[in-house]
User: Which sequence fits this backbone?
């Protein structure tokens, strides 16, 4: 199974994502006209470690056999690397990429499941240097995830990564012809992506769980805001140097619940970009799931919704 394998759209996509305290499920249907529609969401608490019985229960409750299903790896389960694209024919790309990975992984490259995605180059440059993202995960982990879903009677079609899920939502709000930075947080930390034209150009993880941004102590909370700001400044400066041909329009904060307003105001004061908070109902139809209008619920389901927005990818 590849991370970016092609899938057929059958009744939209049912995404299943694991969090520290439970399983999130979301079914989203794209429409040729109008907004993508969230058909249902569900959160199913479980006690760690996750048992097959817990996932089987979810499969029965959501009638998983009706859908094409996807899931996300967590940040600790894979690596995203940026490398220069090897100058080889397409049929030799995977082999060439494996040679590049030999010195970049902390395990043997033969034990890795990998996939690749192009990073668009400057169309106006005289010489176009090409880069690409490499996604790598241990074969054993990928197989275990497939086995888990098989035993729970989930028809798993795609194993995806959070960067792509966030890209899917960013694509709904990108200004035409300009780039968009998007920042989200969950229990594991922050994720910054920069996209343009529906393509991912940059991703950075920020080692800052959302709980650190919600601290009651003002001094500690401000220190966390400072760290996030510094990481953003470094990442955006790097992006400007590396992708000067993409004009960034703004930074969008994903829904964050109680920490959102304070961080938005702090970043708006300290960054050169306009900083806004994403109004998720403006890009996704939530009429069938009124609970999703709460910011805390949007924060919990943010990446799950992004995974459920998946559509066919071009593969190499």
Assistant:
């Amino acid at each position: 199974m590849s991370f970016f394998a092609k899938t057929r759209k059958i009744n939209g996509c049912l995404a299943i994502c694991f969090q520290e305290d439970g399983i999130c499920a979301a079914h989203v249907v794209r429409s040729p006209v109008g907004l993508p529609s969230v058909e249902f969401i569900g959160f199913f608490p479980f006690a760690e470690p996750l048992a097959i019985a817990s996932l089987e229960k979810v499969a029965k409750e959501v009638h998983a056999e009706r859908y094409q299903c996807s899931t996300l790896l967590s940040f600790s389960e894979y690596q995203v690397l940026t490398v220069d694209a090897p100058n080889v024919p397409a049929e030799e790309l995977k082999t060439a990429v494996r040679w590049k990975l030999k010195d970049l992984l902390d395990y043997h490259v033969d034990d890795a499941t990998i996939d690749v995605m192009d990073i668009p180059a400057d169309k106006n440059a005289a010489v176009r240097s090409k880069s690409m993202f490499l996604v790598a995960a241990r074969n054993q982990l990928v197989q275990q995830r497939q086995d888990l879903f098989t035993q729970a009677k989930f028809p798993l079609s795609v194993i995806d990564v959070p960067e792509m899920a966030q890209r899917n939502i960013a694509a709904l709000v990108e200004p035409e012809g300009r780039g968009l930075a998007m920042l989200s947080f969950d229990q594991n930390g922050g994720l910054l992506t920069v996209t343009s034209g529906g393509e991912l150009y940059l991703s950075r993880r920020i080692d800052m769980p959302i709980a650190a941004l919600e601290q009651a102590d003002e001094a500690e909370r401000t220190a966390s805001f400072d760290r996030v700001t510094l990481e953003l400044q470094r990442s955006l400066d790097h992006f400007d140097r590396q992708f000067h041909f993409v004009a960034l329009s703004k930074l969008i904060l994903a829904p964050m619940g109680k920490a959102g307003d304070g961080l938005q105001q702090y970043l708006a004061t300290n960054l050169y970009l306009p900083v806004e908070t994403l109004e998720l109902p403006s890009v996704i139809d939530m009429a069938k799931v009124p609970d999703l209008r709460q910011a805390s619920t949007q924060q919990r389901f943010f990446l799950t919704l992004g995974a459920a927005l998946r559509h066919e990818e071009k593969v190499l």
Notes: Residues 4-9 have pLDDT under 50 and may be disordered. Residues 218-242 form the longest helix (25 residues). The helical segments are 52-62, 93-101, 139-151, 162-170, 218-242, 260-270, 295-308.
